[in-house]
Amino acid sequence: QVQLVESGGGSVQAEGSLRLSCAGSGSRRFMAWFRQVPGKEREGVAHIDIVSGGTYVADSVKDRFTIFRDNAQNTVVLHMDSLKPEDTAMYYCAASEWVRDVLRQSEYAYWGQGTQVTVSS
Which end of the chain has fewer surrounding CB within 10 Å, N or C? Predict the structure, then answer.
């Protein structure tokens, strides 16, 4: 059983930064962050392979978002810079033992409850 808990969401002005953390009980190799706006499909944002350290970040946020593992805290972090109003969404942490399409939500078996990010202009 894997339980994921996100933290770090909040409200910020455009061009600001936020850091989201995902703490999980039970380890799974592949972790990712997704986001969802009401009425739209869940969008993959970033992925990390815990074993190899390899990462992948969606083109839409590539120069602004970073995903990494904080070994001291045993969390997966999504660091977001230069935030834009269009980044406003509920952000979810996800985990899976194996994925092929790293930003496809159906590949992930475990999900957190989400943390809200709101960016104002």
Answer: N
| Measured torsion, CA atoms of residues 99, 73, 64, 16, in degrees rounded to the nearest 10 | 140
Secondary structure class of 101 (helix, strand, coil): coil
**Backbone dihedral region of 76: left (phi > 0), alpha (psi from -120 to 50 degrees) or beta?**
beta
Instruction: State the first-to-last Cα distance of the chain, in angstroms, to the nearest integer.
Output: 40
pLDDT in tens, 79-118: 999 999 999 999 999 999 999 999 999 999 999 999 999 9
Place of tokens 């989400």: 114
On the CB side of 105, CA atoms within 13 Å amount to 14
Q: Are 79 and 21 contacting, i.e. CB atoms less than 8 angstroms apart?
A: no
Instruction: Give the whole-angstrom CA distance, residue 87 versus residue 69.
Output: 22
User: pLDDT-based confidence at 24, cuts 50/70/90?
Assistant: confident
